[in-house]
Design brief:
The complex is a heterotrimer of chains A (about 500), B (about 475) and C (about 100). Chain A has about 500 residues and is of the alpha+beta class. Chain A has 15 helices and 19 strands. Chain A has helices at about 50-65, 175-190, 230-250, 295-305, 310-320, 325-330, 335-350, 350-370, 380-390, 400-410, 415-420, 430-445, 445-450, 455-470, 475-490, and strands at about 5-15, 50, 70, 70-75, 75-80, 90, 100-105, 115, 120-125, 130-140, 145-150, 150-155, 160-170, 205-215, 225-230, 260-265, 270, 285, 295. The chains are: A alpha+beta (about 500), B alpha/beta (about 475), C alpha+beta (about 100).
């Protein structure tokens, strides 16, 4: 009975070699405060100089989200005291951000339901929706705090890492839409190769604001802000939880308090942050250490022309050029690397459906169980297509082929070597098969009788026996044909 | 003739000339300087600290807000009393490369907040011409050291007149270069959009020489401009015949209405005489107008304090400097550290700057100030369309007495009335000695040129200097 | 009155500076007179003026070739941990140490 209104604020760490404003390595995993210098430590007298790669990454994302890159953009200081902030201000962008007014088209799964107050549900009819992107801006990340007893310890390795903030208008209407938006956004960021987008490692962070209102109501309801969600699933769950919580409050005639809530994954609930002693007053003003940036139409066009193919364009092309199904393409396009791999396979072996089946099935299984991505799997596209062609030519069974794949990934022997070594080539020779058929017919008179009396199901049993006799090497199709032929003459 | 004077009393280029002719060596210079310092430093108190040098080179004094690797650099503040920078400011790198050694760091108003050098956490510096008077500020230590012949030359920093006003009070030459001419990397920021490092010297030639060394593009400072640096010594060779000089009427009509202190009669006379001298040298002088001059001080104290409040937020006891340890929680630690670490003027400016940026006041104060700043800058652009430079007094008065303005911050702020506009507009300006009051205190002439035309400043200043003897005067210490 | 003692106290808190009563009294009076002086800006006609967001951005400065100051994405040496922490009032296990942050 309420309409849900959600806005998302996503922060992504940009994958540059060095930090946003200094030459320290943008990489984690080394000792605390070993990737710092006077600039990112905010030492007196130090000055920032913007990393051109961070700027270009930001432009790419903005363009991919169909935003208007601003012809003039500048940085501002956001002032507040916190020990993870070396200068006690963050270099960010306030009134003249890098880009404004974009949008991201998402698919809304027709079977998805919008749950409201846990009771009612309705099917969404629209299949596509554009989520408006309000702004995209660059800023610097803060350091990390570790709480230890009576102390807090500060590590500034992360301070100054380039961040891109992507903010939607409050026009997302369900947790599923939010999930879809995030998945689509992540795919784009990965296609652009600008971020790892790893929520667990914090290279992608998402905060949400959410409010409810009666259908038809123009004014937005009082919103709450949700933080501390560590996966897209958690975002969806937290939103579901918050819808229920807010609806309950409204139902009972009470008011929503505007506040920031933290998602507690373990308890599957939100908890209020302890209220700040004072309202934040960030005192934004133009960063005097950085003159503004003028972006000509030519420069913007040049970046735009160099954008790689984005997920939606790729999906359309795969459907058009390879005749694949929507379902296959959705899965193949999830990871750019997988889509690229598909195309590399197709070049040497132009049977799209077979390749797609293998990538979605056995390869995907191997990737998951080995926790690898396709590049680190160490299987070259021609190797995979060689294996597929054995199956397609019915030289080995599908089952054997999966075994070959696993063996190949474990042993580094070639596909051909493994097939030979394991003696997996199917028996297609009728002479060789003939003896097996004879033996099967002789040992299974009852089934033979059943078949001859019209129980066609008995044939499958006989084929199975032939397979068993041949230790799986008999070509089932040929075996069946031969069985039928013999029994016809019987 | 110079050889008759003690080495410490010579200019930098005179000494370099003698070294080149093998008539003296660096060891002799250092010894002479050391004797001079022993004799007069107790009276002047120009230095915050001296440096133990292992290297040998031409000595220079540096204001205590320019980072020197491995040397305490404190901005004359308690909050930075133990801070040792892990890096050299770009100007220090340039000086070292040119064969200089840093003899010591000069006293200043804390974080360059002040016009008298009294706001130092260490001690006030005295004016070498009269120990009861201030040397001006905030680069008062640098000006006094040069005037007292304790230093051959020195670096200062100028945010609203902090090089030119003490130069004027101490009878030396002080240059604020164009914003973007000299790298700010390593200068502990007061107001980032106004700060520039510049030289304080005994004469214009030394100023031109030092400016050449410290100027130029620095990829570590986004506000440093990649423009060619002229040959400033060469620019001295030209005369000033036919040069067009503007004299802004607003600077001479300062009548002491309301809060505004009037232009001192003796200063006015000295500057009038200087202008007559420039005419004699062939310059064409006319009256011009900088109509928004009256707003400069107000704009400055909004812009400068706003930036300062943010720049000084980092002094919180976490990474360096003072920490008040008694505090058991973080916010208390911040507040007590900053209470104990900052002097009264720093606190006043941080509070004022925080206020003008805070919610509800930002538009009325800060945004409005940025708009008026644009008007002030435009005033200069208009005048420089027709004129080569502008000539004014550097300060409305000669050096005032210690303590005279300490209780009245606004009066202190207003003593910068003639120097502030150049910082707001980003243009270069130089102060050269142009007279002496009856009380025997120096008077300064300020010459301002368009952005990146330091050559014009040096040329006019040098021609004037050579036609007069003011730069030859020495205080009796 | 433009600024009250209460305002000064609030702003000082925002700036994380503790003030004692004496300082509060003194600064309130002094800031009042400075702000009174600053009031004169209200007289200036700024109706058609854009605020100057950066001294280097405005046209008169004649630096059309300036702007877009960017740094190539090239690695520079970081400070060794010991040097980064050298000035720290307190450190522990390679970290800067502060009193516990209360959430």
């Amino acid at each position: 009975m309420y309409e849900t209104v959600i806005g998302l604020e996503v922060h992504v760490q940009l994958k540059t070699r060095t930090k946003a404003f200094c030459g320290c390595l943008n990489e984690f995993g080394s000792g605390a405060n070993t990737r710092t210098c006077p600039v990112c430590l905010g030492f007196p007298g130090s000055l920032p100089v913007l990393n051109e790669m961070a700027f270009e990454h930001g432009m790419k994302v903005a363009l991919a989200l169909n935003c208007q890159i601003q012809n003039f953009t500048k940085f501002d200081r956001k002032n507040y005291f916190y020990p993870d902030l070396p200068k006690n201000y963050q270099i960010s962008q306030y009134d003249l951000p890098l880009a404004l007014d974009g949008g991201l088209k998402i698919k809304i799964n027709p079977s998805a339901t919008l749950r409201i107050d846990g009771e009612r549900s309705r099917t969404i009819k629209d299949k596509e929706k554009t989520i408006p992107v309000k702004r995209v801006h660059l800023e610097e990340d803060a350091g990390k705090l570790i709480h230890e007893g009576q102390d807090s310890l500060v590590d500034y390795n992360r301070a100054g890492v380039p961040l891109l903030e992507i903010v939607t208008e409050p026009m997302i209407n369900s947790p599923d839409e939010a999930y879809e938006y995030l998945s689509e956004l992540k795919a784009i960021l990965k296609y652009l190769e600008v971020s790892d987008c790893d929520m667990e490692k914090g290279s992608l962070r998402c905060d949400a604001n959410i409010s409810l209102r009666l259908p038809g109501e123009k004014k937005l309801g009082t919103k709450t802000e949700l933080k501390n969600m560590n996966s897209f699933k958690a975002v969806r769950e937290a939103l579901h939880y918050e819808i229920k919580r807010q609806a309950g409050i409204l139902e009972s005639g009470q008011r929503i308090i505007q506040e920031t809530l933290l998602w507690d994954e373990a308890l599957s609930r939100t908890v209020a942050m302890r209220s700040k002693e004072e309202a934040m007053d960030y005192r934004y003003f133009p960063e005097p250490d950085l003159p503004g940036f003028v972006l000509s139409e030519e420069k913007i066009r040049a970046v735009k022309d160099n954008l790689p193919e984005l997920p939606q364009a790729l999906k359309q092309r795969f459907i058009r050029d390879y005749g694949l199904s929507d379902y296959d393409v959705e899965i193949l396009a999830q990871e750019k690397q997988v889509a690229d791999y598909f195309e590399a396979c197709f070049k040497v072996y132009p049977r799209a459906k077979s390749i797609s089946n293998w990538l979605i099935g056995p390869i995907s299984y191997e990737l998951n169980s080995r926790n690898l991505d396709i590049q680190s799997l160490g299987l070259k596209p021609p190797e995979l297509t060689a294996l597929i062609s054995f199956v397609d030519q019915e030289k080995i069974s599908n089952l054997s082929a999966k075994e070959v794949l696993t063996e190949r990934l474990n042993s580094k022997n070639t596909i051909e070597e493994i097939i030979k070594e394991k003696d997996l080539l199917q028996i297609r020779d009728s002479g060789e098969l003939s003896a097996i058929i004879d033996a099967v017919l002789g040992a299974n008179q009852k089934s033979v009788q059943d078949y001859l009396s019209g129980k066609t199901g008995a044939m499958m049993f006989l084929v199975g026996q032939a397979m068993r006799q041949s230790k799986g090497k008999a070509n089932p199709k040929i075996a069946q044909e031969m069985l039928k032929e013999r029994l016809k003459n019987a | 003739m110079p050889a008759e004077k003690p080495l410490y009393a010579l200019t930098g280029l005179e000494l370099l000339g003698l070294i080149k002719q093998k008539k003296t060596g660096i060891a002799d210079i250092l010894e002479s300087q050391s004797l001079r310092t022993k004799a007069v430093e107790e009276k002047v108190k120009a230095f915050a600290r001296f440096t133990d040098n292992t290297a040998s080179g031409i000595p220079i004094a540096v204001k205590d807000n320019i980072c020197i690797q491995g040397q305490p650099t404190t901005c004359a503040s308690k909050i930075l009393e133990n801070f040792i920078p892990p890096y050299d400011a770009t100007v220090i790198q340039r000086l070292k490369k040119a064969g200089f050694i840093i003899q010591g760091q000069t006293n200043m108003d804390e974080f360059a907040f002040g016009s008298s050098c009294e706001n130092s956490a260490f001690f006030p510096t005295r004016n070498p011409w009269n120990p009861d008077c201030v040397p001006g500020g905030s680069s008062g230590g640098s000006a006094a050291a040069v005037a007292a012949d304790e230093a051959i030359w020195a670096l200062g920093s100028d945010t609203g007149g902090s090089i030119r006003q003490p130069a004027s009070f101490c009878g030396v030459v002080g240059l604020k270069p164009t914003y973007g001419r000299v790298s700010r990397y390593g200068l502990i920021a007061f107001a980032s959009s106004l700060d520039q490092i510049g030289p304080l010297t005994k004469d214009v030639r030394d100023s031109a020489y030092l400016t050449n060394i410290i100027s130029g593009y620095d990829p570590n400072d986004s506000t440093s401009l990649n423009l060619p640096v002229g040959d400033y010594l060469k620019s001295l060779e030209k005369d000033i015949k036919g040069i067009k000089i503007g004299v802004p009427k607003e600077y001479f009509s300062l009548s002491g209405d309301g809060e505004l202190e009037g232009l001192d009669r003796e200063v006015k006379e000295a500057v009038r005489e200087a202008i007559a001298q420039l005419r004699k040298l062939g310059a064409e002088v006319s009256e011009v107008s900088l109509p928004h001059t009256e707003y400069a001080v107000a704009v400055y104290y909004i812009v400068a304090t706003a930036e300062a409040s943010s720049n000084l937020a980092r002094f919180d006891g976490v990474q360096y400097g003072l920490r008040v340890r008694s505090a058991d929680n973080l916010i208390a630690m911040y507040k007590k550290t900053r209470q104990a670490g900052f002097g009264p003027e720093a606190k006043r400016r941080i509070i004022l700057g925080t206020y003008v940026l805070s919610h509800g006041y930002y538009e009325a104060y800060y945004v409005r100030a940025l708009k008026v700043r644009a008007l002030i800058a435009r005033d200069f652009t208009e005048v420089f369309k027709e004129y080569d430079c502008i000539v004014t007094p550097t300060s409305p008065t000669t050096a005032f007495r210690l303590g005279e303005k300490l209780e009245n911050p606004l009066a202190m702020y207003l003593s910068d009335v003639y120097t502030i506009s150049a910082n707001l507009a980003g243009v270069p300006a130089i102060s050269v000695p142009c007279g002496s009051s009856k009380a025997g205190l120096p008077i300064g002439l300020q010459i301002t040129a368009k952005a990146f035309d330091e050559e014009m400043l040096f040329r006019v200043a040098y021609n004037y200097e050579q036609a007069t003897l003011w730069h030859k005067m020495k205080p009796n210490l | 009155m433009i600024i009250s003692k209460d305002d000064v106290q609030k702003v000082a808190n925002l700036a994380r500076i503790e003030l004692n009563q004496e300082e509060l009294n003194l600064f309130s009076g002094q800031l009042e007179s400075v702000l009174e002086f600053i009031e004169k800006l209200k007289k200036a006609d700024v109706s058609s003026i854009q605020p100057m967001s950066h001294i280097l951005d405005i046209q008169w400065f004649d630096c059309a070739h300036h702007g877009n100051v960017l740094r190539a994405d090239v690695l520079r040496e970081s400070l060794p941990n010991a040097l980064a922490l050298k000035n720290a009032p307190e450190s522990l296990k390679g970290h800067f140490r502060v009193p516990k942050v209360i959430e």
